[in-house]
Amino acid sequence: MKNFNLFAVLVSLTLVFTSCSFNETVLPEEQSTDLLKTHTIRRDVDGTYSLDYSLNANAATENVVDESTNTNYIYLYSAENKLSSKVTQDFTIDGNQLKIGFVDTNSSKKSQITIKDEDAKFFKTKNEDMLSEYSISGNEDGTYTLNFSVNNKVKVDFVFNEELNIYEVHLEEGKSDETTFSKVFDKIDGEALKIDFVNHIREDDNISAKSNGEDDGYVFTKERRPEVIII
To answer: What pTM does this model have?
Structure first.
């Protein structure tokens, strides 16, 4: 009887120590979080760009510019005794392109946003440009939210171009009751998420034909600007 009781005690102790060992192994993995919480790239009405991003607790950053690729990298590091924080940075379009990359050294996750647009100093006035302002936000669930506003008398259509694998936002002159829009996009791991604003620009064409009433005297060209690529 004593032997049986001793055996039961040994088995119970073994289960307790095994359970503790298992919890010590699993809990850190369950409690670990990405250092980057959310981020938003925004273009204001004057054509200038800014980046807002939120960090989880115990995270620090370092900015590094890779001149060979003209990419602004933000490296994220683990740091003790730091509260969650929000950071804002201003950026400029270099040439016609802006590249911002996040590198999480804790989880080895990488992401990069490339934007092709005009330099702010050459930016069109409000009356010339159909798109007023926009932002693209990376959310905690891995989705991206596009928010934007257009000027008056601009019609908006959302189209997925299967041939180019690009989500297109078509802007053209027309009647519309809305000037602000929001759309959420899913990003597939390993694939680029591409979002283009396609501006239908009306140009003068053959004034003599217009005066003779042969046509309306205008042709439309399509200008892709801005273009957003997320990898």
So the answer is: 0.78
